[in-house]
Design brief:
Layout (H helix, E strand, L loop, with lengths): L1 H17 L3 E3 L10 E2 L17 E19 L2 E9 L6 E7 L6 E20 L4 E6 L5 E7 L5 E7 L1 E3 L12
Antiparallel strand pairs: 1-10, 2-3, 3-6, 3-9, 4-5, 4-6, 7-8
């Protein structure tokens, strides 16, 4: 019984650290040294648009990523991958079909230095042109293929929310 009483404060202190309030980190995609094959997707400006259907964001070091936010105007079908650290080895974080959200929020828990977005379809009307070939047969031609419109991709982790204490205020 004495042992339980002696260990109780350590147990309670340990549990208290498990429930430390957390908040989102800074946007990792805006850190110095980040490389992206579509820089307009990670420039912090919602007015720039990337039309790329494949975007890879390379962080300068591995980070624990808890939330990915993709701002877009027309992404319908997409897949988001994490890089596993081996050349060409990727793992799916999230895939979706029929998305209608302009702000896609993906809650996850991965540790990586690269994130890849692949857009396989977009919403919006496509203009179909009908033509005759040399034998008089009708052909349908997708004359205008809509392109993805990605405004911004943000990557966040969690950081412990540290409260400040006044040194004149008693702790207990």
């Amino acid at each position: 019984m004495k042992m339980i009483i002696l260990l109780l404060p350590f147990f309670l202190l340990g549990c208290a650290t498990l429930f430390v309030p957390q908040e989102l980190s800074e946007n990792y995609a805006l850190l110095p040294g980040v490389e992206c094959d579509a820089p307009e997707a990670v420039d912090g400006n919602m007015n720039t648009i990337s039309n790329s259907s494949r975007i890879i964001i390379s962080l300068p070091e591995r980070k624990s990523i808890s939330r990915i936010i993709i701002y877009n105007t027309n992404i319908s079908d997409f897949v988001v991958y994490e890089y596993l650290g081996k050349d060409g080895a990727w793992k799916i974080i999230k895939s979706a079909r029929g998305n209608t959200e302009s702000k896609i929020v993906i809650n996850t828990q991965v540790t990586t230095d690269k994130i890849r977005l692949f857009v396989s379809d977009v919403s919006g009307a496509r203009f179909v042109q009908v033509t005759r070939n040399d034998r008089g047969l009708l052909q349908e031609v997708d004359a205008k293929q809509n392109k993805p419109e990605i405004q911004e991709i943000e990557l966040y982790g969690f950081v412990n929310k540290v409260g400040t204490t006044n040194s004149k205020t008693p702790i207990f």
